[in-house]
Amino acid sequence: MSERSELTLADGVTLHVEVFGPADAEVTVVLLHGWCLDRRTWHQQIAALRGLGVRQPRIITYDTRGHGRSGSTRLGSATLGQLGDDLAEVLRRYAGNGPVVLAGHSMGGMTIMEYADHYPVEFAERVAGLLFVSTTAEGHTHTKYGLPPRLATLMRAGETLGAGLLAHSGAWRPHRALLPALRPALRWLLFGDEYEDAALQVTMKSVGRTTLRCIGGFRSSIGDQQRLDTLARLGDVPAAVLVGDRDRLTPPPCAQSIAEALPGTELTVFPGAGHMLILERHAEVSAALAGIVERAASSTPEERRRRAKRARKANQYDQAA
């Protein structure tokens, strides 16, 4: 069974939060979903972690503002920076005092980077493990949609124009009725060579719950983010980076640059897999996450204090500069 609650943020937006596992678990895992999706896309990993028996962590997952069952957001708050602030509040309210593992898919991974950038000392004190799945630290730098350069440029221009129109369309969801017609496009954009129909259905239902304002509003922030420098300052946090070689949104170069920025990070590229890696290769993603949780459980408070001390010094240097 899970515990569900509503967290009201400072600007009045409510987040739908779901928590699994014992409150006194050794490690807390926070799962962050992607753009236009919701917490249900992590259901395979939740099941796998809950199957660890006495070693199972506490699991926190929530719908990002404007997504799933969470409340709508103002257009000005549809930014990755705001999502980093939201994550900080979720951790303070639900994550207890022990080590935390953050796992982010797509926009969820970018949210983790914003949290690390905005709250470097807090991040170092709390976070003992990271899993980045199908994400990027370089905006749309490497996004070619699997197309030739000229076609990719045209598609990006059309996407950017469409996003601008959708961003001003309000907090409604008329595209729900169009989902059957959008199925082939979503399948092509988000999945690789093989997929289960149930995975596509979960994805389509998630997209149907996302407001037009969020579908369009987050596009600019996502495209502009540059956080490799932030990752390079994180030090020796146990981390893994996963990507499919058929990912049309965050292709392998995105994952490679993240792995290069994080010392000692393990990079895994899955042949034939697309952007929805947590559904397409759910067993492998779950195993990687369980491995990070195990490493986080063996971390010591002293290690996190050392990282926090380095983060504090780096933060003071940045402020002085």
From TrEMBL:
One of its GO terms (molecular function) is hydrolase activity. It comes from the Bacteria. InterPro entries: AB_hydrolase (IPR050471), AB_hydrolase_1 (IPR000073), AB_hydrolase_fold (IPR029058). This is Alpha/beta hydrolase. Residues 296-321 are annotated as: Disordered. Keywords: Hydrolase. Residues 29-288 form the AB hydrolase-1 domain. It comes from Paractinoplanes rishiriensis.
